[in-house]
């Protein structure tokens, strides 16, 4: 099966209609648009290319996490992302946008031991559910 045939098969599986004489590049654009991927340079400035993980694969849109419960603080954790506020309960499995996961991952505190040595810790420790 040629690449063009494989592209047409993928479009058919997604329920995308197209003329028989469509070019492969145009069909690939239609598939990307159908899947919500907008990465053309001539598109609006507001649309950004999908970020990649360190392995080169696309990042997930949502991540399921469980914030660890804290004996000293039972309050839910508020996180602001893309103009929305998320209030995340501790000890409960929740699905959040990748950006919320990234904010929590990058939120750190500096702790000092008796000798004055500094160490970084997560402000809101959590586990990722796979």
Q: Report the average pLDDT across residues.
A: 81
User: What is the helix/strand order?
Assistant: HHEEEEHEEE
Write down the overall geometry: elongated
Q: Roughly how much helix do the residues carry, as a percent range?
A: 25-40%
Unreliable stretches (pLDDT < 50, length at least 5) are 38-51
Distance between the termini: 34 Å
Q: Report the structural category.
A: alpha+beta
The percentage of residues in β strands lies in 25-35%
Radius of gyration: 21 Å
Biggest sheet record:
3 strands, antiparallel
- The beta-strand count equals 7
Number of domains: 2
Number of helices: 3
Query: How are the strands of the biggest sheet laid out side by side?
Result: 4-1-7
Protein name: Rho termination factor N-terminal domain-containing protein
Model description:
This is Rho termination factor N-terminal domain-containing protein. The chain is α+β, with helices and mostly antiparallel strands. It has a three-stranded antiparallel sheet with strand order 4-1-7. α1 runs parallel beside α2. The chain is elongated, with a radius of gyration of 21 Å. The two termini are 34 Å apart.
């Amino acid at each position: 099966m040629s690449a063009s045939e494989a592209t047409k098969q993928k479009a058919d599986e997604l329920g995308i209609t197209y003329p028989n004489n469509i070019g492969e590049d145009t069909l690939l654009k239609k598939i990307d648009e159908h899947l919500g991927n907008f990465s053309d340079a001539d598109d609006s400035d507001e649309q950004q290319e999908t970020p990649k993980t360190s392995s080169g694969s696309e990042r997930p849109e949502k991540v399921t996490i469980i914030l660890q419960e804290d004996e000293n603080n039972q309050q839910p954790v508020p996180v602001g992302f893309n103009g929305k506020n998320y209030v995340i309960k501790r000890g409960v499995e929740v699905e959040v946008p990748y950006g919320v996961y990234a904010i929590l991952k990058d939120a750190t505190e500096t702790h000092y031991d008796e000798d004055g040595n500094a160490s970084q810790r997560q402000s809101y420790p959590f586990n990722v559910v796979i």
